[in-house]
Design brief:
Helix content: 40-55%
CATH class of the largest domain: Alpha Beta
Bound molecules: ligand DCS
Strand order of the largest sheet: 2-8-7-6-5-3-4
CATH topology of the largest domain: Aspartate Aminotransferase, domain 2
CATH superfamily of the largest domain: Type I PLP-dependent aspartate aminotransferase-like (Major domain)
Number of domains: 2
Radius of gyration: 24 Å
Shape: globular
Largest sheet: 7 strands, mixed
Number of helices: 17
Strand content: 5-15%
Mean pLDDT: 95
């Protein structure tokens, strides 16, 4: 029998910040999608679809994206170093290319211990050095391994930086609208003040520095201590990419307004118009700015995105530029309280930044896999964008980068009334209906915030290419039926 003794810990007396925190990417709709998936697995035949497609989250391997062969070969050898013993050599060399075997040996040597041991809290020094070399090569400016912190995905880094920035509830952090809800959720958890600034949808979700300046001055005049600016580039959920000149203006603005810049660059290789809008890191932009030695910048990267999509391994890093030395020591203390980021994630981070080189035995296959995935992602982004733009009442900016499209939906009066009757936001109502009709799970725009009176949803374009036309067909049919029903 269940005990009747009242619980010590209840939803009423728990940490209110956690209670108030919201994270729509894995919110109510995603939970409902899992229920539907269970029903299908148990043989349900009463649903109008035969599979649930999770387009709510940028989780490529969940949708059958194949991992990069070389990376998995190396990590599997690191996980099972018995395979590197001399007596197994002839057997293993039939299964693994020589460069994968050599790389695994090198990594284990660099780590200097089993990967089951705790590492340096900032990440294994040699692996951090690989990351520093990658940054130097990417940007043409050196990076210091001691300014790098390897993390469990970019998420952990973002949370650490937001935590250290938060002095009290007056601490304000500028976050884009729409934004990836890691930012709003973490600020709620910390009890800091999110200061929203708006991206302009009509001009491709562009960022206007003078608009942000007004926002800062207004927030400061109300007593908010605005001290950092978050930029997601390429954008999530918007897919926009910043122009180099705009980035210089942003840096100048940060200098003038005394703001630390947090540059979330996890989608830096998901760039679909490289000629028109190549990726430029904020580190490089900073190095080319007159205030290169002053402006405080923290930039984030991850193994979860790009063509790698190793989200479940939880790897990433952040790089600090121009931070106060005392603050970096405090960051080290924070990292040390968690002992270390998981070592498998650190290894994958190092592999991401040092892939096979031309001439290496694995180079050709690696190139083929990366290019194949990239071209496929690009094709899928264009196809889905066209599908959205052809829908009645829908407009969709192209994804210049990232893994998402964020179409704007204009819903008929009757649909708005129905949503109100159900006490739902109109975009949530639309996404609910989509899930129940098609098995496709997307995220309502309200989960990312949006300009008042506009409604959107976010979908990834990650469903497998062989099934992509079918997937698009389901969305088209759903939308047409929805509009016909509520017109
Ligand atoms: N920053 C941005 C902009 C992201 O989109 C994500 C993940 C992260 C950071 C954190 O990623 P990792 O911790 O895995 O490195 N994107 C989520 C999303 O919107 N869909 O999938 C996860």
């Amino acid at each position: 029998m269940a005990s009747t003794t009242p619980k010590v810990l209840t939803v009423e007396n728990m940490n209110p910040h956690i209670r108030e925190m919201e994270y729509a990417v894995r919110g109510r709709l995603a939970i409902r999608a899992e229920e539907l998936r269970d029903e299908l697995a148990q043989g349900a035949t009463n649903l109008p679809f035969n599979k649930v497609v999770s387009c709510n989250i940028g989780n490529p391997q969940q949708l059958n994206q194949k991992p990069i062969t070389f990376f998995r070969q190396v990590v599997s050898l690191c996980e099972n170093p018995d395979l590197l013993e001399p007596e197994k050599e002839s057997l293993v060399s039939q299964l693994y290319p020589i460069d994968a075997i050599q790389r695994a040996r090198q990594i284990l040597k660099d780590i200097g211990a089993s990967i089951g041991a705790y590492s340096h809290s900032q990440g294994v020094p040699a692996l951090r050095k690989s990351v520093a070399n990658f940054i130097a090569e990417r940007d043409g400016y050196p990076a210091d391994p001691n300014s790098l912190y390897l993390t469990q995905g970019a998420s952990a880094g973002v949370q650490n930086i937001l935590s250290i920035l938060t002095q009290n509830e007056k601490t304000g952090i500028l976050i884009p609208i729409p934004q990836y809800p890691l930012y709003s959720a973490t600020l709620t958890l910390l009890g800091a003040t999110p200061v929203p600034y708006y991206l302009d949808e009509e001009s491709g979700w562009s960022l206007d520095v003078e608009e942000i300046r007004k926002t800062v001055h207004e927030a400061r005049s109300k007593g908010t201590d605005v001290r950092a600016l978050v930029i997601i580039n390429p954008g999530n959920p918007t897919g926009q990419c910043l122009e180099a000149s705009n980035m210089q203006d942003i840096l100048t603005f940060c200098h003038e307004e005394r703001l630390l810049l947090m540059a979330d660059e996890v989608y830096q290789t998901n760039i679909y118009e490289p000629e028109q809008r190549p990726f430029v890191s904020f580190k490089k932009a900073l190095m080319e700015h007159p205030q290169r030695d002053t402006i405080e910048l923290v930039s984030f990267h991850s193994i979860s995105k790009g063509m790698i999509g190793e989200c479940g391994r939880r790897g990433g890093y952040f790089e600090c530029c121009n931070l106060d030395k005392g603050v970096t020591e405090q960051l080290y203390k924070m990292a040390s309280v968690s002992l270390c980021p998981n070592v498998s994630g650190q290894i994958m981070t190092a592999l991401m930044v040092t892939p096979p080189k031309q001439g290496d035995p694995s180079y050709e296959l690696y190139q083929k896999e990366m290019t194949g995935l990239y071209e496929s992602l690009r094709r899928r982004s264009k196809k889905l964008e066209a599908v959205f733009n052809a829908m009645e009442g829908v407009t969709c900016q192209p994804a210049m980068g990232s893994m998402y499209l964020f179409p704007r939906i204009r819903l008929p009066e009757k649909a708005l009334a129905k949503a109100a009757e159900l006490n739902q936001k109109p975009d949530a109502f639309y996404c609910d209906q989509m899930l129940e009709a098609t098995g496709v799970c997307v995220v309502p725009g309200s989960g990312f915030a949006q300009k008042d009176g506009t409604w959107h949803f976010r979908s990834t374009f990650l469903p497998e290419e062989s099934l992509f036309d079918e997937f698009c067909g389901h969305l088209k049919d759903f939308h047409a039926n929805f509009m016909a029903k509520y017109k």
